[in-house]
Amino acid sequence: MRAGIALGANLGDRLGSLTTAREMIFALPDVLAPQLSSSVYETEPVECEPEAEKFLNAAIEVGYDGEPLALLHALREIESRLGRPAEHEANRSRRIDLDLLYHGGRVRDDRELQLPHPRLHLRGFVLLPLAEIRPSLVVPGQTRTVGELSEELASTASVVRAARQW
Fold first, then answer.
1. Nearest 5°: CA angle at 70, between 9 and 17?
2. Longest dimension (CA), the chain
3. Cβ–Cβ contacts within 10 Å for residue 141, how many?
4. Is residue 11 classed as helix, strand or coil in its secondary structure?
5. How far apart are the C-alpha atoms of 65 and 146, rounded to whole Å?
6. Model confidence, pTM
7. Is the peptide bond before 50 cis (omega within 30 degrees of 0)?
8. DSSP H stretches of helix in 27-156
9. According to the model, what pLDDT value does residue 98 have?
């Protein structure tokens, strides 16, 4: 089953954090090829504290044979290893942020995990990178493709491609 993951960072070595996180995700035991990566985009902070630095964001998609909750826990462990505290205040600057966007067509809405990610369709910093690697994807609960959704937000989102290769 295919799983989409958003990566973001706005503290410290932002590109280094994204690159290391991607390598760690690709090395997880249940992660399978093909492994897709978007370009890296620089974005304005959304709903962060005043004076927050710009983010670097990207999206990846991998094959994943395990349960989505196990993948979420693995992502949280990677965040921890890269310096993000377990109890991180929402919408604050961070060294790394990893969000599970979808896992196949699964739908889940509980305290631990929401699939697909509830704000995926509203965030240019998620949609533009994701549309680069999966433009024809329609996530559960949506009627339009990721590419179509990203085009709608393109004129209002402050999302600029920073690097094609990383």
1. 20
2. 41
3. 11
4. coil
5. 23
6. 0.93
7. no
8. 68-81, 124-133, 146-154
9. 97
